[in-house]
Amino acid sequence: QVRLVESGGGLVQAGGSLRLSCAASGRTFSGYAMGWFRQAPGKEREFVAAIRWNEGWTSYADSVKGRFTISRDNAKNTMYLQMNSLKPEDTAVYYCAGPYPGNNYWGQGTQVTVSS
After folding, report:
1. DSSP, res 28
2. With 0-12 CB in 10 A as exposed, 13-18 as middle and 19+ as buried, what is 103?
3. How far apart are CA 34 and CA 94, in angstroms?
4. What are phi and psi of 105, to 5 degrees?
5. Cβ–Cβ under 8 Å, residues 108 and 5
6. Taking 80 as the threshold, does the pLDDT of residue 9 lie above it?
7. φ, ψ for residue 48 (rounded to 5)?
8. Any residues with CB less than 8 A from the CB of 20 and at least 6 apart, and which?
9. Which of 34, 36, 103, 113 is deepest in the core (most CB within 10 A)?
10. Before 101, cis peptide (omega within 30)?
11. Does residue 91 contact residue 12 with C-beta atoms inside 8 Å?
């Protein structure tokens, strides 16, 4: 059974940082891309960032470029999202999913709240 488990969310003040983790189990995503998505209250889920597991390719939404960094640890089958200079508009539930872009598997989400 494939599982994606996010962690690392929380409450932070504007300008602060958080690091999200997505631990995958049940299969390896080596050779595939994985992604981070988010959904704010009353809004549709949106793409945040993606990374190919073993080639280093990355992609970011314009809204997070220069502030967020996606990375992965192949040995741990884990993906990360380092979020710096957080803004109140970054408040959302953050999900990891893959293989990107088909996204057959989703985690349960982790809440990120940025206070002004």
Report:
1. -
2. middle
3. 13
4. -120, 140
5. yes
6. yes
7. -115, -55
8. 6, 7, 8, 9, 36, 80, 81, 83, 94, 96, 110, 112
9. 36
10. yes
11. no
Phi, psi (degrees; rounded to nearest 5) at 35: -135, 160
Instruction: Give the Cα separation of 75 and 30 in Å (integer).
Output: 10
CB-count burial class (<10 Å; 0-12, 13-18, 19+) for 58:
middle
> pLDDT at position 30, please?
74
Task: Give pLDDT tens digits for 24-65.
Answer: 988 777 778 999 999 999 999 999 999 987 767 999 999 999
Using DSSP, how many helices (H) and how many strands (E) does the chain show?
0, 11
Dihedral of CA atoms 45, 51, 57, 58 in degrees, nearest 10, equals: 40
2 contacts 24 by C-beta, under 8 angstroms: yes
Residue 46 CA from chain centroid, whole number: 11
Interval 97-111 mean pLDDT: 93
